[in-house]
Task: inverse folding
């Protein structure tokens, strides 16, 4: 795994929180939710995605616009989106 | 196969999560989730009927949220 510059260190916290929320939604262990995993491969459908986005809004105290969330297909993309809003 | 009404789902979930009482909250969330999944394949008239049912549920929950189950005091 390539080393990341210091600026991304905070993002790994965001990523882990996103992974946690998704693992809770799925009811699976955290280690089954890889950063590069696609929602569809994890077995998440559009209803799950709605709940995940709501949980992310609550967790990070942000508002996500629906159009933006439609383009989120992986765990990492969700984390990047949030990191971009903070 | 038509897409599920995601906005209605989100609205219902918002209201369900407002219950202060843990049991009411969990029941409401599970109820919304189960209903949408069960009705996922519906088309035409039955889909329209369930959609209307969902909207009525939303109105009911919104009225309840201003009562004793409200999050806010």
Result:
């Amino acid at each position: 795994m390539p080393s990341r510059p210091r600026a991304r260190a905070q993002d790994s916290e965001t990523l882990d929180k996103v992974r946690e929320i998704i693992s809770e939604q799925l009811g699976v262990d955290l280690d089954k939710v890889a950063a590069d995993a696609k929602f569809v491969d994890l077995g998440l459908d559009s209803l799950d995605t709605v709940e995940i986005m709501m949980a992310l809004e609550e967790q990070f105290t942000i508002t996500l616009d629906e159009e933006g969330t439609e383009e989120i297909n992986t765990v990492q993309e969700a984390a990047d989106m949030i990191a971009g809003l903070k | 196969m038509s897409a599920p009404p995601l906005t209605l789902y989100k609205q219902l979930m918002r209201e369900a999560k407002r219950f202060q009482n843990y049991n009411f909250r969990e029941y409401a969330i599970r109820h919304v989730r189960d209903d949408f999944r069960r009705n996922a394949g519906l088309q035409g008239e039955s889909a329209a009927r369930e959609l209307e049912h969902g909207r009525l549920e939303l109105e009911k929950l919104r009225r309840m949220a201003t009562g004793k189950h409200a999050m806010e005091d």
Summary: Chain B touches chain A through twelve residues (CB under 8 Å). Residues 3-71 of chain B form one domain.
